[in-house]
Amino acid sequence: MLEDRPVPRGLLDGVVVGLVLMAVFTTAWSANTLGTWPGAAGTVITAVGVLAGAWFVVTAVRLVRTRRLASTVVTPEQERWQKRSGTAFGVVFAVEAVLVVAAANVLSAIDRPDLVLPAIALVVGLHFYPMARIFRRRIDTWLATALSAVGLAGLLTLLLTGADRDTVRGLVACGAALTTGTYGAYFTRLASGLLSRSALAR
């Protein structure tokens, strides 16, 4: 049975990285509501995001503590796949960072700083599409679609309507935090399975 096999170290490390990234992004997105919805609403949403991020980090730490039990045995095919996926991940992440910085600078230069947050959400959402192909995870496609829709809806609303800017940006931040939080919960579920397998291996 799968539960009786040692946990591959590459898989364990990937889940740890995913948990840490989602902890950072969920906290950051939720904290954006402090500037757009000052008062109780922003404080509560930020607190929920921080708690979720803390949960992801604690889970990652628990997983790291079992790393010595993980298997380092990989087949040549698995080794090649790990190298290719690692390189592809780095390229996609770098392109995402460049696009985020470029969007922020351009929108600020044309005096539309209100569009920065939804533009970033759109870029982050779109970057999940190649991630789905790289890591062969269907959930990445769903999250890519959800977050891209949040960012695009925010941009169109701000460009085409007279809606309150802070309200729109707050909603975008909430939608993005919910998306990354969902991804973090997905990684937490994977981590729970790996922790169970590690416990059986002791």
From TrEMBL:
Keyword terms of this UniProt record: Membrane, Transmembrane, Transmembrane helix
Stated name of the protein: Uncharacterized protein
Regions crossing the membrane: 12-31, 37-58, 88-110, 116-135, 142-162, 168-187
Upper classification of the organism: Bacteria, Bacillati, Actinomycetota, Actinomycetes, Kineosporiales
Source species: Kineococcus mangrovi
